[in-house]
Specification:
Layout lengths: L1 H49 L17 H4 L7 E5 L10 H10 L1 E5 L10 H18 L4 H16 L5
Parallel strand pairs: 1-2
Helix pairs in contact: 3-5
Amino acid sequence: MLGVVFFAHNSIESTLVRLECFILLKITSMSLRLLYLLLVGLLISSTLLAQEPMPKTNSIDVNAKIDKKKERPDKPRYKTIIKNDTKGILYGNKCFEEFTQSIGFQYAVQNKKSSGSLNGPARFFHNAGTKTALFFTAWPWWKLRVNKKKKDCRKLSGDFVG
């Protein structure tokens, strides 16, 4: 009987010892985890504080996808008024060409006999559409402004006689 009690006593004692060890181990592992996290935090913060800021560079990222619409400026698409000859349009006069482009159109010269040029009715309807669009975008008196600027540009370049 004494041996059984001793065994029971040892069993209770060993359970208490195991429990104490478990609690001590648990506390130790929690404190080790906390200590580990603290050390990692200190290392990260010290490396971040010790680093110099990266200078801004104009380097190009090779893997970046380029949005072509944003990167390239849009070429202005001018409406065209088709003429058979260069008479009266000051073809090659930079002053007049810049003015017509600022309004939103340009003159195009097409020979009647060359391939790819518009025939009479097609050219008429094309020009009618362009002139109607100019009526609304450059206001009703766009033709008067063009004629006035044509005279001014001819005087500036010395093409004006009379």
